[in-house]
Amino acid sequence: EGLPKALCEALSCGLPAVVTDFPSGPDVVLREGGNGHILPIGDAEGFTSALRSLMADPDKRAAFGQAGREDLKALREDRVLARWDALLEGVAKS
Length: 94
What we know:
Layout: H1 5-12, E1 17-20, E2 36-39, H2 44-56, H3 58-72, H4 77-93
Parallel strand pairs: 1-2
């Protein structure tokens, strides 16, 4: 999935996320240590540790949740279209 909708929905609700990495997906919206955790596939111990860390730290959960909401603003339609416009204008000038 190029843009993981379930992850975006969770972040939009202010939920921190713990996910496993894959080539195209979570790093589009998730910043390791900024709004969640991205762990290597198969790292069960790391996954468990990240979940426990978030469960034990309400301030960190809240900070990750707020950061997730803010980070998703970059994916709003108006911002994405503005970036496309700028890119296409730059290409047209080349």
